[in-house]
């Protein structure tokens, strides 16, 4: 069965439809106050008593009439007779009969009749039935008076207020043990697909671990208003899907499914829902990624369908699902901010483009590009930007809607060419680092625009590495730091050594992305071997671009490609054959402001310290590593 997306709803329409449906599911219930943190109060709560409920001492000391010790000091202590003692929890009210008397009192004990202050025991000296007092007190000193904190019938919790740990303390102090709250939504989470397996199991080729199931549960649970269960994986089988849905509807108000949402022959979920009498409330949202999302209702239950790719699912969760779930609880999240865009982007006509992004050092949003199946892009992002498909393009400096999802402390922002050694140096410098692989040209662009603190690059031109990019603009903002050398070459299972051999044997080649230093090496090698006018499309899969050295090696290892250009480090790591073609200089561009900072100085120290270690396979650590070269 093929499901056609007849009419796509907007983000706002999808939120309203889902929010209105969820409101009908939320009721009220009484819970113990110890289980109420994070929940929403369903009514105004009034104090049942005064707090403190009686005048009580705030210190250990002696209760007395302040007039008896007006002139007390270190040289002229006042002697009073101790006529009793009051411990915390005392149920009787003691009494003083004269100015020359006092009563020992413990912290929290009720103040005796006739006393108007308490002198701290630190300013006294006890001798038998008498005590010498070395300082005066003021009326009311060290006494907490009844009702001074809050009074009986005072509102201590508002209807619609989210209950905090401090509110629990306030309820406890008023003697309230249970509170009426808005009920949690009961949610079941399912993943679908024949290729999905549970984390912790051995994986085979063609399989992937279930990301969305655990991810959706963790995200929903973090808001404390949802009671969710991860129900596991359903295979693409009509009867299995139907049986699981039928049993889940008996226990859960909302069922989340992941996968089986696109218009494919193996997506049986729609057929099952239609046959069960479910009503589609929307099918498809006018966003990218995340279009193949749906909402069905059946009886008094809802089924929310999320795309299978993690980034697509996250886009829908943060922009539609989570705001809609929280709306009936009067909690607003995901409120957009108008923020400057850091670079030109082109959305797809008629769809709102959702991109994860980080807030760069200059306050602009730097989009993190990649596939909708990406997981790391979610963990790196500070939030999602949404740009309208009504415009042909958005230019650098244009204002865009940005939905923050985390207030992330970023001590170091690294944008540039990926390298495992640089990553280790960064993470040994700080755990609060954001690392985005954007290629060598990405490092230059990010530094020019003021997004980043540093970035690795290995750009080659006319026999020179990296220093040629340092024009006057870059020199005013950044310095080029000497990094290390890496051995690049052909990486394969069968020992390829040239592009001529690749063409002759019709081997499948995996290229590197445009803007990377390795792509420049590849194109230079092709021109050197085959001539300046050679038509590169004759190389089988020349336009297949991998975004990292590891991705090239992994493609060769899996047999999807026969050969690529990568660093020796990954050839040895994956036990692949390697033929050296070039020793390249991988250097680091760092902003001058960063280099002056404590974190920048620590980074340079850690980089230089590598000279005292044995380089990994395929690396060479030069003597001037960590020094400014431009």
Short description:
The chain is an alpha/beta fold. The chain is built from 16 helices and 37 strands.
Structure description:
Helix 1 packs across helix 6 (310-326) and helix 4 (238-249) crosses helix 5 (269-275). The chain is 24% helix and 29% strand. Strand 8 (124-127) and strand 9 (130-133) form a beta hairpin. It has 16 helices and 37 strands. The longest helix is centred in the middle third of the chain and has 17 residues, at 310-326. It starts with 10 loop residues before the first helix and ends in a 10-residue tail after the last strand. It is of the alpha/beta class and 630 residues long.
Low-confidence stretches: none
Structural class determined from secondary elements: alpha/beta
Helix content: 10-25%
Number of helices: 16
Number of strands: 37
Q: What integer value in Å does the Rg equal?
A: 34 Å
DSSP strand content: 25-35%
> What is the mean pLDDT?
90
N-to-C CA distance: 62 Å
Major β-sheet profile: 7 strands, mixed
Shape: extended
Write the SSE topology.
Layout: H1 11-23, E1 28-32, E2 45-46, E3 56-57, E4 61-64, E5 78-86, E6 101-105, E7 117-120, E8 124-127, E9 130-133, E10 143-144, E11 155-157, H2 165-173, E12 178-182, E13 185-192, E14 196-197, E15 208-209, H3 212-221, E16 226-234, H4 238-249, E17 254-258, H5 269-275, E18 279-283, E19 287-288, E20 294-298, E21 301-306, H6 310-326, E22 337-340, E23 352-359, E24 365-367, H7 376-380, E25 383-387, E26 399-404, E27 412-416, H8 420-429, E28 433-437, H9 439-449, E29 454-457, E30 460-461, E31 464-465, H10 472-477, E32 478-492, H11 499-504, E33 509-512, H12 517-530, E34 545-546, H13 549-558, E35 563-567, H14 568-573, E36 577-591, H15 592-596, H16 598-609, E37 619-620
Parallel strand pairs: 5-6, 13-16, 13-17, 14-15, 17-21, 19-23, 27-28, 33-34, 33-35
Antiparallel strand pairs: 1-12, 2-11, 3-10, 4-6, 4-7, 5-9, 8-9, 18-20, 20-21, 22-26, 23-24, 23-25, 25-26, 29-36, 30-31, 32-35, 32-36, 32-37
Helix pairs in contact: 1-6, 4-5, 8-16
